[in-house]
Amino acid sequence: MLEDDGAKARAIASCTRALELSDRNACDVELLSVGGFSPLRGFMNEDEYEHCVETMRLKGSELLFGLPIVLDTNCEDTKAGDRVLLKYQGKDVGVLTVESKWKPNKPKEAKMCYGTSSIEHPGVAMISMERRKYYIGGKIEGLNIPQRPFPCPTPAEVRAGLPAGKDVVAFQCRNPVHRAHYELFTRALHAENVGKDAVCLVHPTMGPTQDDDISGLVRYKTYVVLAEEVKNPQIRWAYLPYSMHMAGPREAIQHMIIRKNYGCTHFIIGRDMAGSKSSLDGEDFYGAYDAQDLAKANAAELGMKTVPSLNVVYTEEEGYVTADVAKEKGLNIKKLSGTKFRQMLRGGEDIPEWFAFKSVVKVLRENI
Prior knowledge:
By secondary structure, the protein is α/β, with parallel strands linked by helices. It is 36% helix and 18% strand. The strands form three sheets. Strands 1, 2, 3, 4, 5 and 6 form a six-stranded mixed β-sheet that branches. The chain has a five-stranded parallel β-sheet with strand order 9-8-7-10-11, sandwiched between helices. It has a three-stranded antiparallel β-sheet with strand order 13-12-14.
C-alpha cells in the first residue's frame, strides 16, 4: 500500500487506462494491497494461474494456495505494459501494471478448483457468467482502502490488537452468530491443542457470498450488538473483505492462509465448510468432512492447527451439550431449522432465546 501522497499522485499519473472493479474484485485488490493474500502481491499471471489451478500451489515457491486470484476484463486492447487505474465506486483504490493477458479455460478452472464444471454450483456460475472474457495479471500498488459502511481492519491492525505469545483461534462465518455458533467457538478455546489464555478471533467474510445470504451491512450490525451484549474478553471481532467462492476443501485452505496472515494460530473447521448445494436438486457438491480432511492434511505445512467444529445441540435438561453427550444421557434435543427461524422472524413470532440472542434478533427484525 502506497502511503505517501506524492507517490500515489505519480502512480495515478502514470496510468494509461482505468477499470471499475466489481464488488468481488475490490475485495481481492484490498487483500492484495494489505497483505491478506501474502505472499501474493498482485493478480496472478497466466503461468501462475495455471499452476495454482492444477496444483493448489504458488509457482516458484510451491507454497500452498487454495484458489487463483485473478482480475477479469472485457477490454480487447489492454496489453502487457499498461498501467491500469483500478477504481471502486468511483474512488481510486490501486494501480495494476499489466504483465499478462489471456483467455482462461474456465471449464478446467471450475473442474479443478470447485470439483465440478456444473453451473448449478454458485462458484462455477460466478466464473462462467459473472467474470468477463479475459484475465489480466500483474503487480498491484494499493492507493486507498475501498470505502465500505463497516470497518475491515488490515492484517497489521488485527495482529497489533492480539495478545502476544498466545494462541488465536479463528472462527469464520458468513451469517449472523446465534447461540450454537457462540457455544461452538467459545468451547474451541478449551480444545486439547489450544493453549492457556487463548482468544478467539471472530472474523466474518463481508464481501459477496450467496444471493440468499443476509447483506454484509446487516450482519455487521448484528456482530456489533452481540459483542456489546456478551462483553467476552476472550473474543475479538474483526471483519474480512473477502468474497466467498463456496469451493469447499480448497476454500478451507484459502481461509487458513488468510487467517494466518491476520495473526491466527488455529482455525475452526466446520462440517461442510464453504460447501454448497446444487441450485436445481439441492444435492451437496462436497462430502461433509472433505474440507476438514484436506485442512488437517495440510495444517502442518501451513503452520496452523485445526480445531474441529463440535456438534453442539440444545437440550431441555442441560442446555447446550455435544451431540454424543445428549445421546449417551438420553436428553431431549430441541431443534429449529434456519427456514423456520426466518419464517418466525418475518412473521413477528417470538424467537426462543436458546436459539438466538435477543440483540441479534432485534437487528434482523429491523433490517430484513
